[in-house]
Amino acid sequence: MLKKLGRNPALLKAAGLLLAAYLRLVRKTNSMVIDPPDAYERLQPHRPFICAMWHGQHFMMPFTRPDDWDVHVMISRSADGEINATAAEKLGLKLIRASGSQKSYQITKRGGMRGFIEGLRVLKEGGIMALTADVPKGPARVAGQGIVQMARYSGRPIVPFAIATSRFISFNSWDKASLNLPFGRAAIAIGEPIYVANDADDEALEVARLAVEAGLNEVTARAYALTGKRHG
């Protein structure tokens, strides 16, 4: 019965709207710093770009978007994805419902190829494409090939993003997820753009993948440090 209720569209939408309202509360009650302070100005010449983030650190990501940015986010079609999608849309993001996989036979099932093509279209039309670099379900904080291939075929750079709050609850989940809490400090950390040549061979793609991984780990650590906290 609980499983059936968990797939009820009305309940999932209600949960998403509640999550959006809660995240707005968190944003309003946390003072914010951005590092580097001129990060958004420095990104202007690199637009449109691919905004990279880690799974489990994504809840507050809509608040990294300036009002004039057209941002599309890739979110899975799972039950959890329905909640996240409703919240993301309520917070001003546009949606692509798809996700990648570690297993090739699941890519079609999860809409991975369709999502990849949609992401290329968004970038070609000048929009910003946001997606998690690591692929469910694990290993956590290991960048997959998908985001690197999107950069290769689009010609647009990958930019690591992280946002953290000083107060949070950590979960024992595959993605080391954190739920941000109100009434504290928050920080946005943004990394350097990572370009991938359209003729990159396997070795160059692996170098780029590792650069994305290192960049995301660096901005995540920096965002938490700016709030005076550490996160595993």
Automatic annotation (TrEMBL):
GO terms for molecular function: acyltransferase activity. Keywords: Acyltransferase, Transferase. Residues 66-140 form the DUF374 domain. Coiled coil: none annotated. InterPro entries: DUF374. This is Lysophospholipid acyltransferase family protein. It comes from Pannonibacter anstelovis.
